[in-house]
Amino acid sequence: MTNLQESLTRELLRTNRSGAYSCSTIVDCNTRKYHGLLVVPVPELDDDNHVLLSSLDCTVIQHGAEFNLGLHKYQGNIFSPNGHKYIREFSIEKVPATVYRVGGVILKKEVVFQHYENRILLRYTLLDAHSQTTLRFRPFLAFRSVRQFTHENSTASRDYQEVENGIKTCLYAGYPELYMQFSKKNQFVFSPYWYRGIEYPKEQERGYASNEDLYVPGYFEMNMRKGESVVFAASTKKSATSGLKKLFDKEVEDRHPRDNFLNCLVTAAHQFHNRRGDERYILAGYPWFKCRARDTFIALPGLTLAIEEVDYFEKVMKSGEKALKQFFAGKKVTSPIYEIDRPDVPLWCIWAIQQYEQKVGREKCLAMYGFFLKEIVKFIEDGKHPYMTVADNGLLYVEGGREEAMTWMNSTANGHPVVPRTGYIVEFNALWYNALRFCANMASYDKNTVAASHLETMAEKVKESFIDTFWNQYGYLFDYVDGEEKDWSVRPNMIFAVALTHSPLSQTQKKSVLDICTRELLTPKGLRSLSPKSSGYNPMYVGPQAQRDYAYHQGTAWPWLGGFYLEACLKLFGRSRLSFVERQMIGYEDEMFQGCIGTIPELFDGNPPFTGRGAVSFAMNVAEILRTMELLEKMNYNTEEAV
């Protein structure tokens, strides 16, 4: 904790169900413009999150001497006021807890984000003190979008109003009021001041502007007795201060202990939950991602079914079904789900429903989604998708992939995809074949022989065309084929043809594809997005935006792809691959102590030491690791049953 080279690379994320969050480093020194103690959506302004309260500095005062426990980085590589040197202990089982020691004073700080309100709660407990101790709290206010910076200005309002045990204030019109209150009476001293030149090193690394000024309206001060606790609440709503201590205890009680790898991932999974009125969604990641259609359907089974939360699957799928039906009908999509028009989204939706069927059985699945499945297949078969048609050979053909990113490999440079994939795309058609077989089986179970026969006929046609189109003489699959153009790059998208329940490949072909992926793409952090042997390999996701865009899908490693790879291993080789898959899981377990504590980042460098990069927490990665763990558990259980 006292070594900033170590502690500043480790972050903490706390969220609620509205998309609001609290995020910083484990020593409370903000290193990103996305960091903040209270970061909330302000739909009246835009669809971004906004940093209201950047941080809260606590100062211990004893015998007239002041010891500030805060920490900020300023221009010139200056850290002040170096509060991290007083840290003696840090733990994060249910909630983050930091113990500071200043002479004879021992102070414990705990943090929790309320589940269903935009309210951050901090509890300070004076564990030991040999004489009268005073605590002083300075709030650093930003009131800005996570994509911008604030600087000293005369527009910011200095007005505030006293409320119960605190104040409320709002710097700019259009923003909600920020309530800052304590569970104990205190004195607020109005002493407005701008702290200038605060710097965010992560933004420097990313090639962005990196400094701003933060406004401090004054400070709160109170005396504390040994053994006494006080709870601070920052919220967009007024808090009942008499109930803050009970509220803090209740929120802690509702948290899962992070005492093992699985529980860390379950907690991370819950952080992606998003509620808008009666509807439920999945956020693609933190701190900058929103709800995206493809990510939702890929992540949904792992984030819900794999941890026995079938009801949440159904709630999210209900929202996804509504959005897709609006898109199918050519209506405006009213749900806050982005990129619903990407051509593989309906295919991933069918895959997610297939995982649901494997969990709850065909009868319940038919009752819930039987008609919806028919709608999806008919929409695709009738060629109604604006970017995708069914070709004469039965395969799905995607148009416009050179001008616009159509697949999950969606980074762009100068207005064009870095990886232009168009025509017959390998994972689209693997998903299409799998969808046809799955829907045929569902129709057969429903005794709809006409529909089942039609779907089987289509699937057979796709199977034959898939082999003719994608299989090459070197034992792997082309990434895409467009007329005479065939992409020979060794990419991980072919793994889906092996991992999916229904595959157009023979056993020999599956093993050959898996072998290529193992030799050229496998890392301890998932599959690389491009083989080192392929031209354009760029495995290090570092530098300014343009440099990172060119590396994004050109060699970086992705854990969610690794999930499908490991599923393919277990399907092909069964119990003989159990120990191998378990060893791969260890590579992810190590990440619980790195980066953002207790979760998995967006991607990793494709070369050693495979450093985590991008968003601090990514839904598809957490989901696929959880789904792999469930597959392992099932196989281990079946092994024990056999014995």
Structural overview:
- The chain has 643 residues and is α+β, with helices and mostly antiparallel strands.
- The chain is built from 16 helices and 34 strands.
- The strands form ten sheets. Strands 1, 2, 3, 4, 5, 12, 16 and 17 form an eight-stranded antiparallel beta sheet that branches.
- The mean pLDDT is 94.
Structural class: alpha+beta
* DSSP helix fraction: 25-40%
- Kindly, what is the distance between the CA atoms of the first and last residues, rounded to a whole number of angstroms? 48 Å
What Rg do the Cα atoms give? 26 Å
Return the average pLDDT rounded to an integer. 94
Specify the biggest β-sheet: 8 strands, antiparallel
Q: State the low-pLDDT regions, or none.
A: none
Shape: elongated
β-strand number: 34
What percentage of amino acids are in beta strands?
Answer: 25-35%
Total DSSP helices: 16
List its traits:
8-stranded antiparallel β-sheet, single chain, 34 strands, alpha+beta, 643 residues
Secondary structure: elements and pairs:
Layout lengths: L3 H4 L3 E5 L5 E5 L10 E6 L7 E14 L2 E4 L3 E3 L3 E3 L6 E6 L3 E7 L2 E9 L5 E10 L4 E13 L14 E4 L2 E4 L8 E5 L4 E13 L1 H5 L5 E14 L4 E7 L8 H10 L7 H11 L1 E4 L2 E4 L2 E2 L6 H11 L6 H19 L16 H16 L1 H20 L6 E3 L5 E3 L13 E2 L2 E2 L6 E2 H20 L3 H22 L9 E3 L2 E2 L9 H4 L7 H14 L1 E2 L2 E3 L16 H7 L5 E2 H15 L4 H12 L13 E2 L7 E2 L3 E2 H24 L1
Antiparallel strand pairs: 1-2, 2-3, 3-4, 4-5, 4-12, 6-7, 8-9, 9-10, 10-11, 11-18, 12-17, 13-14, 14-15, 15-18, 16-17, 19-20, 21-34, 22-23, 24-25, 26-27, 27-28, 29-30, 30-31, 32-33
Helix pairs in contact: 4-16, 5-6, 5-7, 5-16, 6-7, 7-8, 7-9, 8-9, 9-10, 12-14, 14-16, 15-16
